[in-house]
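=== RUN LOG ===
request id: a7f3
mode: sequence -> structure
chains: 1
length: 187
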Amino acid sequence: MGVPMTSTTSTSATSSSGSGIRLYTQTITNTPDGTIGSSKNIGTLTKDKTALALSGELTNSGDQYDYYNFNVTDSGATTLTIKKGSGNVDVKVLSASGQVLADNKGNASQQANFQALEDGKYNLNKGKYYLKVSRGSGVSTSKAMAYGILLGQGSYTKDYQTTAKEGKSSASSGTSDGSLISTDLFA
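=== RESULT ===
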C-alpha cells in the first residue's frame, strides 16, 4: 500500500524514542484561498493505526482560508482537535461531495457534530473528506495566523505530520514570514 501521502514536497520518517510510534513528516505548498479541487492531501486515517497532524498558517496577505483532503479507510468514531495557540479559526469537515458535516462555528447541527468530533464520538465512514480552515468572523487578514489540527481514530502507531506552507496566489501581493505552528502543539 505504501505511505498514504500525496502532493508532498519533502517527506521523512523517524522513530519516536521509546514510544513505539513511527513519525512521518511532509511539507506541502498550499494555494492561498484555494478550492476543494486544489486541496492538498494530508494522509490516510486508519483506525487504531494512524493519526494525522496538520500545522499551517493563514498568511498576512489577505489569505482567508485553506483546503486539505484526507482519506478514511475504516468507518468509526473519529476525533478532531484544534490545538492550543491556533487562534480564532473556523474548521469545517466536508464530505467528498462538499457538504459541510461539522463546523465549529456553523449552524446548531454542524456545531453539535463538531463537538461530537472533539469528544471522539462522531463516526466518519470510509471515504474521502475535506477540511476547510478559515479565519474566524472579524479576524483581520493583516496578521498571519497559525493553526494546528489533529485527527485520529483510537490509538495509533504511525503519526503523519504535515506542515503546510503558503504559495503565492495570483491575487496575493503580500508574503508570509514563513513562521508556522510548532510541532510541540502535537505533543
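=== NOTES ===
The chain has one domain: 10-166.
Confidence is low (pLDDT under 50) at residues 1-11, 13-17, 169-187.
=== END ===
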